[in-house]
């Protein structure tokens, strides 16, 4: 972002405390880069900020890695990403909240645009993604219409979603009856409270799921959700794509669980 844009956002957030809320399950491998990116963006924008990592039932060194990289840690045993996001948010103190998944690297421009949108009155919003490395051809084909649809209808993935503290509380937080599609429900709730903005800048997220599952497996997972949308997302046991032990990413030595 240019100096003029940066200056405008900075003037709008003077004295505003920003909390980054990060859910994590067995993320010792990717979490350091995620936290480093948050620190880098916050320092470049001269934010007053804190980072809270909700360590959800990890059996690796996620909690210690988070502390070593300047985050405060809250521990839960829910094994549910909505509950982990709520725990991180409720342990934070910021007037605005930016939810970042543990395998996602924010950019200064995305953070700046998010804060600027809330300063201008938005209840919340999100960002589109780019992947951290090569993904199968079918994933790239699938992403293009998804991006168009999300921008058109104002939805976002959960890896980067922001809102004011007031909107978060009024929305009742993340819906803990859902084990998937919780970001769609959160966007719906926030849109009832005010503008929901999809920023122009993207964030960088892991493509490991797309590299470790076949196109057929991904298609069948979404087909099951499409055929029974009200019941399929109510239990982790029907959501193996999200909650099965993580398959080893060919681009990394990191393994098990879902962030």
Question: What would your notes on this structure say?
Answer:
It is a single chain. The protein has helices at residues 3-12, 31-44, 62-68, 81-90, 108-119, 137-153, 165-171, 182-191, 208-212, 215-227, 229-232, 240-243; strands spanning 17-24, 48-56, 72-76, 96-100, 104-105, 124-126, 129-131, 160-164, 196-198, 203-205. Helix 2 packs across helix 5. Strands 3-2-1-4-8-6-9 form a seven-stranded mixed beta sheet, sandwiched between helices. Strands 5-10-7 form a three-stranded mixed beta sheet. It is an alpha/beta fold and 259 residues long. Helices cover 44% and strands 18% of the residues. Strand 2 (48-56), helix 3 and strand 3 (72-76) form a beta-alpha-beta unit. The chain is built from twelve helices and ten strands. The model is unreliable at 1-12 and 254-259 (pLDDT under 50).
């Amino acid at each position: 972002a240019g100096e003029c844009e940066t200056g405008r956002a900075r003037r709008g957030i003077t004295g505003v405390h920003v909390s980054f809320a990060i859910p994590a399950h067995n993320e010792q491998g990717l979490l350091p880069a995620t936290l480093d990116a948050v620190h880098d963006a916050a320092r470049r924008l001269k934010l007053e900020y804190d980072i809270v990592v909700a360590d959800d039932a990890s059996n690796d060194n996620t909690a210690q890695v988070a502390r070593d990289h300047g985050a405060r840690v809250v521990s839960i045993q829910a094994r549910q990403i909505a509950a982990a996001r709520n725990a991180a948010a409720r342990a934070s103190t910021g007037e605005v909240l930016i939810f970042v998944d543990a395998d996602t690297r924010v950019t200064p421009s995305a953070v700046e645009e998010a804060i600027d949108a809330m300063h201008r009155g938005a209840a919340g919003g999100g960002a589109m993604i780019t992947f951290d490395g090569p993904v199968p051809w079918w994933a790239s084909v699938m992403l293009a219409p998804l991006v168009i649809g999300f921008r058109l209808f104002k939805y976002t993935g959960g890896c980067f979603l922001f809102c004011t503290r007031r909107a978060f509380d009024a929305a009742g937080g993340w819906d803990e009856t859902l084990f998937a599609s919780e970001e769609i429900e959160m966007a719906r709730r926030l849109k009832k409270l005010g503008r929901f903005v999809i920023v122009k800048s993207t964030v960088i997220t892991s493509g490991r799921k797309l590299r470790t599952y076949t196109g057929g497996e991904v298609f069948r997972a979404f087909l099951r959700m499409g055929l029974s949308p009200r019941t399929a997302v109510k239990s982790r046991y029907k959501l193996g794509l999200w909650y099965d032990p993580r398959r080893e990413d060919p681009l990394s030595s990191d393994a098990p669980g879902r962030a």
